[in-house]
């Protein structure tokens, strides 16, 4: 095993490739419970039949927890969008179709999205008044049991060399309301500076899923609040602008 080919460097983790395997190596201080939960999420989502990399092993390398999964040779949708800007609309259509296919699946043993959102809202440094409004809004939203990715963005879709699209990184997977998942994807486009892409994405999602745009927007303060817990200072400033609950009443 030669871990010298780095695919990506993320906060608290480095991802390597060695032949046909992918190694996600977490920092030494990363929570063991979170590593094992991610592996369990991915194993459970495998059972839905979606095209995702299969988990092969959970191990330790040099004292660091490591997830070993299949390596999918190919390019991410985000890279393809940059390399072929004239095809961006085509790629966005594929992106939304993949998300809708995912939302058709159920995965009953995953954590519930509402439970996770409630925990995140409680962990924010928002005022008690705003937290109360967000908790109340969250409780009023319809309860669904659809498979939600939680971090669905073009960098987490790999188009393999044979053209098959694979969805990667299931660390935030839950079961819940698909429109909450869409609201998060919309905000991720914004955080990446692609406002035009965000608006095109939301239009496509609502059209293809026959969902009112206002309904997805009702989730945005909730999703933005949950994102502030791990966001950097610049991200938090932007996300806080979405948390003014009164604007969405």
Written overview of the protein:
It contains nine helices and ten strands. Helix 4 packs across helix 8 (213-228) and helix 6 packs antiparallel against helix 7. Strands 1-2-3-5-4 form a five-stranded antiparallel β-sheet, with helices on one face. A three-stranded antiparallel β-sheet has the order 6-8-9. It is an alpha+beta fold and 249 residues long. The model has no long low-confidence stretch (mean pLDDT 93). It has helices spanning 32-46, 77-83, 88-103, 113-123, 128-140, 178-191, 195-209, 213-228, 233-240; strands at residues 6-10, 13-18, 21-26, 55-61, 64-70, 74-76, 146-148, 157-160, 165-167, 174-176. A hairpin with a 2-residue loop joins strand 1 and strand 2 (13-18).
Give keywords.
249 residues, alpha+beta, five-stranded antiparallel β-sheet, 19% strand, globular
Helix content: 40-55%
Total strand segments? 10
Radius of gyration, in Å, reads 18 Å
Secondary structure category:
alpha+beta
Widest sheet: strand ordering: 1-2-3-5-4
Low-confidence stretches: none
Give a quick precis of the structure.
By secondary structure, the protein is of the alpha+beta class. The protein has helices at 32-46, 77-83, 88-103, 113-123, 128-140, 178-191, 195-209, 213-228, 233-240, and strands at 6-10, 13-18, 21-26, 55-61, 64-70, 74-76, 146-148, 157-160, 165-167, 174-176.
């Amino acid at each position: 095993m030669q871990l010298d080919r780095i695919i990506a460097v993320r906060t608290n983790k480095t991802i390597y490739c060695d032949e046909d395997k992918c190694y996600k190596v977490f920092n030494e201080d990363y929570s063991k419970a979170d590593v094992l939960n991610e592996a369990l999420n991915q194993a459970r989502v495998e059972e839905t039949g979606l095209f995702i990399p299969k988990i092969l092993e959970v191990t330790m390398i040099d004292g660091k927890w490591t997830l070993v999964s299949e390596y999918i040779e190919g390019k991410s949708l985000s890279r393809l969008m940059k390399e072929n800007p004239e095809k961006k609309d085509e790629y966005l259509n594929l992106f939304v179709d993949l998300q809708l296919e995912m939302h058709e699946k159920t995965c009953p043993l995953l954590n519930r999205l509402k439970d996770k959102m409630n925990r995140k809202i409680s962990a924010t440094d928002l005022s008690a008044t705003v937290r109360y409004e967000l908790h109340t809004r969250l409780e009023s939203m319809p309860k669904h049991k659809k498979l939600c990715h939680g971090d669905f963005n073009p960098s987490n879709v790999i188009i393999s060399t044979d053209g098959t699209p694979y969805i990667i990184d299931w660390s935030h997977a839950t079961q819940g309301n698909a429109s909450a998942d869409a609201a998060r994807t919309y905000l991720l486009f914004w955080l990446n500076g692609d406002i035009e892409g965000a608006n095109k994405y939301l239009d496509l999602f609502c059209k293809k899923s026959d969902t009112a745009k206002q309904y997805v927007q009702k989730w945005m303060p909730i999703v933005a609040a949950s994102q502030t817990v791990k966001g950097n200072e610049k991200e938090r400033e932007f996300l806080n602008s979405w948390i003014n609950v009164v604007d969405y009443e």
